[in-house]
Amino acid sequence: MVIPINKITLKLGLWFFFVMLIVEVCLFFFLHTNMVKDRVEEELTALQARGNSHRDVLEDVYHEDTLRHIAVMEQNADTEVIITDQEKNIIISSSKLDKGEQAILSKNINTVPRNGKVLEQEWRSEEYISTVSPYTAGEQQGYVFMFKSTSQVQDLISRLTRHFLVAGVLTAALLLLTILFLTKSVTTPLIRMKKATEKLSKGDFSVDLPDMGEDELGELSRSITVLARDLKHLKEERSEFLSSISHELRTPLTYIKGYADVARRKNIEGSERDRYLDIIYEESEKLTDMVKDLFDLAKMDQNMFVIHREKVQLCAYLRGICEKMRPAFKEKGIELEADCQKEIHVMIDPLRFEQVLLNLLDNAIKYSGSSTKVTLSVKREKGEVVIEIKDEGRGIPEEHLPFIFERFYRVDKSRSRDLGGTGLGLSIAKELVEANKGRMEVKSEAGKGSTFLIWIEEVAG
Fold first, then answer.
1. At 268, phi and psi to the nearest 5?
2. What pLDDT, in 10s, does the model give residues 344-371?
3. What predicted TM-score, i.e. pTM, was given to this entire model?
4. Runs of H (alpha helix) within 61-129
5. Which of 117, 129, 337, 435 has the CA that lies 20 to 30 A from 449?
């Protein structure tokens, strides 16, 4: 079975592998070099210590038997000894000298310290490594030369090198497997997210990525899932919005066309024609309002809606709006009460905020019966100002409250010409409140009225 390797997995895997391989080679080279150096130094130190040991024996008992004993000892060891006088004439040797040993003996050793010194340490190119230790036994003075074949050192270094190579190969193999596992674990979520974004780009929003943990990949996965849901919701809203627009535009246009056709008939009376023309005028006004609302929403969506905020004395401002709306309330037999006697200042766009309040008060007129009361009150709450518009009208059923600010959403599905409206007023009002750095909510109960709440930050007077 062939396991497919993705491009990103291969790329990351190779990159990590070569980087770690270079690091591993550098570390192994450093360790190998230092271990070889330390090992050679250990051999030289041991060789020098052995020569000093022979020197100490000679100085204690300088005798022919002692000399032979030292030579015999070295014949059975992997080292060789040569004992000379002060002029480097050989007194005794543990083996026959060869050219390598003669070359070392011929070196000018000058002054040799009591503890001895290294004569030859080049183990790669020479036949022997060597040390020399001086001795003084009564009137007899000379040198103890110690030799060790570099082939033995080279064999030791070769074994060490083989061990390093085996360890390096095993480490590289383990490193490769680890990197493959890690890159696969990293790239698999990325590949899933790539496929998810490809589905999103094709308009398929049925994306549901699994939980990938609490790290950055998990956060990215959750963000893509949220984005897919938002885009799906946006697509559904757009479809519903277009459907609602077509329906809302079709209704007044149908009225206008139908009554225009009737009004054009020559056999109808003038009073009847005037009534039809009034209906056509009303529907054209509704159509104009709807188009204006749609333009306002489009500007808000494109961040082209300009808000000019200024400091406003809220109570005087609200009383002015109430006076403007009072005749309409009086005509319907509804009492309008304004409860705001305090000195409160807020930063709002007076023109746009008036549009919000007029919309809410107009809804209160539409959905309240005669002999009821609508109250517009203001109070302070935790550094904010709360504007409350409360009516005693028909109210809003609980199941409709979460959707009341959506575009074209209506509680009254009958869409009557008297109460239907455009279905955009509350949506625009909420966005205008938010543009004024405020927030808006609604509380309502069917048959008991509705209360719209607007929170705005208070400023110093």
1. -100, 155
2. 899 998 888 988 898 899 889 988 888 8
3. 0.47
4. 64-75, 99-105
5. 435
